[in-house]
Structures are given as C-alpha cells and as structure tokens.
C-alpha cells in the first residue's frame, strides 16, 4: 500500500489569511494522515507568477512538511496558456524548476508509476510544448505494463475528451485528443488534477479523473458548465494498492483560524 496526499491550489502568500487558514488545516491533515508522498498540482502561490517572495514563502512551507513532496506548476505559478496567453514564458518555467526542483517528474511507487507533467505547456505551439509531449510519451513508455497515475494542473477536459469549449477551465481543446490517445495507449488509470477549486470525480473510458479542491478560501470559480459542486476546500487522500486505487475527499468544514 502506498499513500499519497493530493493537494492543489494552495494560493499561498504570507500576508493572505484566506489561504493560510486552509494551508494550516492541510499541514495538520498531512501530519495526521502520514502519507508516503504529498503531490501538489499547482497554483502554489496566490496570483502573481513572477512574485519571487511568494514562491520563496511557498517553497519554505513545503520544505517544512515532514514528508517527501513533488509539485507541478499551475497558471498562477508560471502564467497561463491558451486561450488566455497571459505570461507563460521560459524564464518563469526555469524559475519554477529552480525553486521547487522540477516542472515534471516520474516516481515509481512500487506497483504503480506516478507521473507529473507540466500540462500548462499544452497548446502553446512552441518547441517547449513539443519537448513536453515527447517527455510525457517517453515517461509513459517506461511503465512497462504498470498502471499509471498522471498528475497535471488543469483537468484534461470538463465533461468528455471531445469537449471543444470551456475556455481555460481545462487544457486547450486542441490538446485533448492527443493527450487522450496517450492515456488510452499507455494504460493510464488515474488522472489527478486541480485548477477548478472543487472536488469532483469523473469516469471516462475506464480512467478515473479526480479533481482536488483548493485548500484555500477561493471557492468563487465553482462551477459551470456542470452542476452540483461541493463548495468546500480540502484535500484528497489516495491509496494505491497492487492493482487498485481508492481515494477519499477530506473536506475542511470550518474555515476559521482558531479551530
Ligand atoms: Fe487555482
Ligand atoms: Fe489554476
């Protein structure tokens, strides 16, 4: 058995109480759960990708966790891709890697292979995007029959792989077909993502897609075009057994600072 705590969208800034209250709860939940690994699927800092002070604070907070952790970048960490095309650039990507160790990674957790991909590059039409797709396919090919859990910031889609809309809620529509072909070809069984700030589970083509909620108080992105969101911050506990995967949503019900 291998236990992962999946957190996302912490949106940290040292002076921002709305994110620090939830972050404190996340730290407590991680300590109580004692996972083998913590994975953060991005939007680590509040809202300024080029704010070095925020990144230094967030890096220090992660370093204080008494457990191994891995992160991948979100749009608030390195800028956004299409359709917003805000500020994603090589400099921010390199700064992210320098601060947190990497922008993508693989980890063998026994019976499973876990991959974190910088899906913020998808749809950019740059050489860096081409390199990321090549890296992902090479990483997937090393699974050698193991089930794969793929972590990324934005969901692969909001409703189905052939979604053509939903703006910046998921990876760009033009990238969904390519990603889904790789997912099917290499036996990805789990996709874990964040970005939408809500917990949700979808099952498509035998793949379980888990959206981790935000740990912060930022629940305002909930949630068109699909209904009935769970309007709570929290995190996700994942258990990887030999050939099965289970998870549970750990909500933060009371968002006061003193509980
Ligand atoms: Fe976010
Ligand atoms: Fe995001």
TrEMBL record:
<dbReference type="GO" id="GO:0016787">
    <property type="term" value="F:hydrolase activity"/>
</dbReference>
<dbReference type="InterPro" id="IPR004843">
    <property type="entry name" value="Calcineurin-like_PHP"/>
</dbReference>
<protein>
    <submittedName>
        <fullName>Calcineurin-like phosphoesterase family protein</fullName>
    </submittedName>
</protein>
<feature type="domain" description="Calcineurin-like phosphoesterase">
    <location>
        <begin position="3"/>
        <end position="199"/>
    </location>
</feature>
<dbReference type="Pfam" id="PF00149">
    <property type="entry name" value="Metallophos"/>
</dbReference>
<dbReference type="InterPro" id="IPR051918">
    <property type="entry name" value="STPP_CPPED1"/>
</dbReference>
<dbReference type="InterPro" id="IPR029052">
    <property type="entry name" value="Metallo-depent_PP-like"/>
</dbReference>
